[in-house]
Task: inverse folding
């Protein structure tokens, strides 16, 4: 069997002492920088690149890959413990994960994230091993029309994220879409909403907005209610999952993994959608739907598995086609070039040990992550019981340094402060920031794909319906819209919203 | 007042000590005005690695991306001209006057060009199974059907956009522009069949060319590429006037001591001569830019003049 | 509670949405609108800002009709301290350098807490945090931050 011999080659490569060592270093470093809010894998890998020059290409790429998925993993820890999502996917994890932490179930939430990610990572590793080349071909079938319809579907799903007022959520989504427009328009080269500030012409970094709105906003909010905050940590119950918990998360983990690996293959930003989509789906199909947003364990399990599956699957277009689906993958490609390897379809045939070694190391890395992180949970949970007036200046320090490291500019630190004020105002007005963040991510992509689709079809909007994949997603979006709006509108009957007539 | 005096004294002290000791006696920052992972970044990192080895000093790459490279450029040209802040830049610099209404500097060349690290020919690519087998068939079809053949670029006002404008003017055709977010996405668009062609520099094309996912109809430069001898030059393909070559170079703030500039020029060209650097550049079908510092200055001025001509006849809106 | 604003949260959300929407709309008019088939750079932002204004007006209307919960206080002082400390970090980092910027950020923001007291244990923790940052971010990762900035001639 070809795949078996390939995998064998991969494990032989990845299990050499030196590669195991670099894999461990990578995931440990990744976890560490993931836990530190704001500091992302892009800055870290860029800084560590010179160290990898001296290494063998396989070892260096194994380590860099480890940093990437280790950081994804560590990011959820911060999201759960202190409600500080450093990347798009952790925004979702924080929704229920932090609620669980507030109820003293931080240990359970972290364990769920760890096990869900491990399962997803395992499945996706074998998926890559078995089906990489055909999957990559599928990814190429996705044109601008399909991507646009996918974004529409994602946007509809984001309405589900909110558990408060529907009107506030809709407004926040549109607000996020508008924020995302800031920067240079790809189609015309016009810098929009940039007020002649050069730093704004490339748009605002996601992390700056997230650190401001969630991080600083949360800190100010907590300081306002300092007395209450100290109450919440007194009862830390069960670090490990019970039998019932395992039963509850089994199906969400499976569904999340499936969604994540499908979306992760798409190079045009699919992986970012995976955790949103998984959460929205779970909230619709789960028996426990009423608890979502209030600390439902399913609301952690599904997006975390989807996120990890998506992160691993995003290696597929990079390894098989040489197409980067996110900035980290672009950096990995740069690292390969420095090592004298031209990433692309030829890597698999010309450097089988490298290709299969990286694939195998991903599974080994996931094992390391679980071994490394399960014992750490106890430590993390203790961290939450550090008095808040000691904790929050430290959080601020890490946010500020992390945000600075994004583009090595203090401009982003000022922006973070501005978004902190906005975040606090949002809290006061009960406007949930999660839908805004999704709008912020999707906005620019949606516009780009819409305009490109219309450009290529010479202005004919029927492309969105004529292409079967695109049409299917639009139908799904319409169905989702109806299921979201109907109950909400029915509820509104008693409220003033319907009194308008 | 006191503080200002202190600053002046400190600066003088640090400057004089910088000259007293052998250059470089502290880390040298090589500012890349693009995001990590791109062609400029990768080449700058390799150069920094070689310079560190050769001078026994430390050359650190610092990414300062934003606003088509103007943010990083501006930071370097305002830095102390002591040789400890350098800039890695590419051919996009020569386009900036035609992309922006106003630039944060007045001079045509607001820095001292030190050396060209790499020259990258531009290739015209179509999909591997495209009906256009050679440049003539593509040009003839485009002449007969204006605004039909689509080309992808890394966005309006990007280097590939200018290259494609120059190509259209040279070939006397009108193509349809499909902007993408970055040249990488345009390449994805090409291999997935959304667009008909792209004009990119060799580093972005090599791996897809090897896998036969794309076909190159012509390459710029006077001679064929060593790694792809089947690709004709533009002159051989019937467009002798067309020759755009992209470059990546190193520069220093105006006022940097001559000794340091010429020392760096020598060191960089020595680095380019090393076998691992040749392999590295050869791997992406680029060439070492073996130019004297004033040769680099001439190159930038020539490029500026050329793009001024292209921009005059093109429909590229300034920001 | 004022007789007009029955639900302050809805009302002020409406003000915020329509305000932002209005500003965005005015700015968007500078960009070419294009047509639905061939959109200009102004198309998307114009449509979005109109939508936001629409949602804002709905929220305003709801805020004036339906009773809602009151605001609670607005922690202006604490918000100002935290945000000012963050901005001060950004200002001081290139000028005074990382160490001073960090100390200002840590001690500055800490004063926002009602539990803030100047004591040796907290000071020690703060210094440990500064040392940690220097070791990890500057020595370890090599982030381009200077320990002492331009004010010290570095």
Result:
């Amino acid at each position: 069997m070809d795949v078996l011999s390939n995998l064998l080659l991969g494990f032989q490569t990845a299990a050499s002492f030196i590669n195991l060592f670099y894999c461990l270093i990578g995931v440990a470093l990744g976890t560490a920088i993931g836990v530190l809010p704001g500091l992302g894998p892009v800055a870290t890998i860029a800084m560590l690149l010179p160290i990898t020059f001296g290494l063998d290409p396989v070892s260096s790429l194994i380590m860099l890959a480890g940093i990437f998925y280790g950081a994804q993993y560590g990011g959820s820890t911060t999201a759960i413990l202190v409600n500080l999502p450093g990347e798009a996917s952790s925004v979702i994890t924080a929704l229920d994960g932090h609620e669980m932490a507030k109820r003293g179930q931080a240990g359970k939430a972290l364990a769920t994230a760890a096990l869900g990610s491990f399962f997803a990572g395992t499945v996706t590793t074998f998926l890559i091993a078995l089906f990489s080349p055909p999957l990559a071909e599928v990814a190429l079938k996705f044109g601008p029309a399909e991507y646009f319809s996918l974004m529409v579907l994602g946007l509809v799903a984001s309405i589900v994220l909110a558990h408060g007022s529907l009107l506030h959520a809709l407004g926040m989504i549109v607000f996020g879409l508008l924020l995302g427009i800031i920067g240079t328009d790809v189609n015309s080269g016009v810098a929009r909403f940039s007020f002649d500030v050069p730093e704004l012409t490339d748009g605002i970094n996601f992390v700056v907005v997230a650190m401001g709105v969630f991080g600083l906003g949360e800190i100010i909010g907590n300081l306002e209610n300092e007395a209450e905050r100290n109450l919440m940590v007194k009862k830390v119950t069960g670090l490990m999952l019970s039998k019932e918990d395992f039963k509850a998360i089994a199906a969400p983990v499976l569904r999340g993994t499936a969604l994540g690996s499908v979306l992760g293959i798409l190079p045009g930003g699919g992986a970012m959608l995976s955790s949103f989509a998984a959460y929205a789906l779970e909230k619709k199909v789960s028996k426990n739907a009423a608890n979502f947003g209030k600390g439902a364990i399913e609301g952690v399990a599904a997006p975390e598995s989807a996120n990890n599956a998506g992160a691993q699957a995003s290696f597929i277009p990079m390894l098989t086609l040489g197409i980067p689906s996110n900035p980290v993958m672009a950096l990995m490609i740069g690292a390969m070039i420095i090592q004298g390897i031209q990433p692309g379809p030829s890597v698999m045939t010309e450097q089988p040990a490298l290709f299969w070694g990286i694939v195998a190391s991903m599974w080994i890395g996931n094992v390391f992550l679980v071994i490394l992180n399960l014992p750490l949970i106890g430590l993390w949970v203790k961290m939450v019981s550090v008095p808040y007036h000691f904790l929050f200046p430290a959080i601020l320090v890490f946010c500020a340094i992390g945000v600075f490291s994004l583009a090595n500019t203090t401009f982003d630190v000022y922006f973070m402060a501005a978004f902190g004020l906005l975040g606090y105002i949002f809290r006061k007005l009960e406007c949930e920031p999660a839908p805004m963040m999704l709008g912020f991510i999707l906005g620019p992509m949606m516009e780009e794909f819409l305009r490109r689709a219309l450009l290529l079809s010479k202005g004919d909007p029927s492309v969105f319906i004529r292409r079967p994949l695109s049409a299917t997603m639009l139908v799904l979006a319409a169905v989702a819209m109806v299921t979201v709006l109907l109950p909400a509108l029915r509820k509104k009957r008693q409220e003033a919203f319907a009194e308008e007539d | 007042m006191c503080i200002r005096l202190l600053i002046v004294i400190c600066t003088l002290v640090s400057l004089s000590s910088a000259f007293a000791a052998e250059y470089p006696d502290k880390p040298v920052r090589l500012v890349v005005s693009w995001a990590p992972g791109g062609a400029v970044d990768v080449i700058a990192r390799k150069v920094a690695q070689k310079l560190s080895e050769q001078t026994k000093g430390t050359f650190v790459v610092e990414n300062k991306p934003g606003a088509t490279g103007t943010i990083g450029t501006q930071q370097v040209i305002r830095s102390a001209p002591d040789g400890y802040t350098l800039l890695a830049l590419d051919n996009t610099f020569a386009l900036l006057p035609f992309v922006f209404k106003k630039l944060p500097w007045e001079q045509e060349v607001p820095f001292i060009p030190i050396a060209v690290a790499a020259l990258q020919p531009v290739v015209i690519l179509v999909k591997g199974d495209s009906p256009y087998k050679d440049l003539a068939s593509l040009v003839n079809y485009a002449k007969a059907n204006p605004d039909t053949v689509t080309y992808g670029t890394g966005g309006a006002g990007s280097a590939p956009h200018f290259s494609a404008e120059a190509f259209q003017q040279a070939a006397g055709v009108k193509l349809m522009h499909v902007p993408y977010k970055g040249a990488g996405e345009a390449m994805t668009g090409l291999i997935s069949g959304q667009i008909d062609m792209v004009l990119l520099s060799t580093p972005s094309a090599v791996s897809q060319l090897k896998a036969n996912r794309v076909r190159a109809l012509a390459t710029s430069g006077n001679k064929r590429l060593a790694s792809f001898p089947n690709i004709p030059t533009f002159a051989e393909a019937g467009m002798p006037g067309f020759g755009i070559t992209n470059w990546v170079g190193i520069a220093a703030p105006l006022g940097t001591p001559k000794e340091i500039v010429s020392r760096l020029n020598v060191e960089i060209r020595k680095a380019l001569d090393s076998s691992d650097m040749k392999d590295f550049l050869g791997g992406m079908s680029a060439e070492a830019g073996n130019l004297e510092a004033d040769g680099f200055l001439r190159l930038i001025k020539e490029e500026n003049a050329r793009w001024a001509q292209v921009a005059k006849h093109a429909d590229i809106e300034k920001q | 509670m004022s007789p007009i604003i029955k639900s302050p949260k809805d009302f002020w959300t409406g003000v915020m949405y329509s305000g932002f929407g209005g500003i965005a709309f005015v700015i968007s008019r500078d960009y070419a609108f294009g047509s639905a088939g061939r959109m200009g750079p102004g198309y998307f932002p114009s449509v979005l800002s109109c939508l936001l204004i629409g949602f804002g007006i709905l929220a305003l209307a709801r805020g004036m009709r339906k009773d809602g919960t009151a605001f609670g206080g607005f922690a202006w002082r604490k918000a100002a301290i935290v945000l000012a400390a963050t901005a001060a970090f950004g200002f001081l980092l290139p000028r005074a350098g990382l160490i001073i910027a960090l100390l200002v950020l840590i001690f500055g923001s800490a004063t926002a807490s009602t539990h803030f007291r100047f004591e040796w244990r907290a000071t020690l923790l703060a210094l440990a945090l500064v040392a940690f940052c220097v070791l990890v971010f500057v020595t370890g990762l090599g982030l381009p931050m200077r320990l002492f900035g331009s004010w010290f001639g570095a």
Summary: Chain B has two domains: 27-120+245-313, 121-219. Residues 10-20 of chain B have pLDDT under 50 and may be disordered.
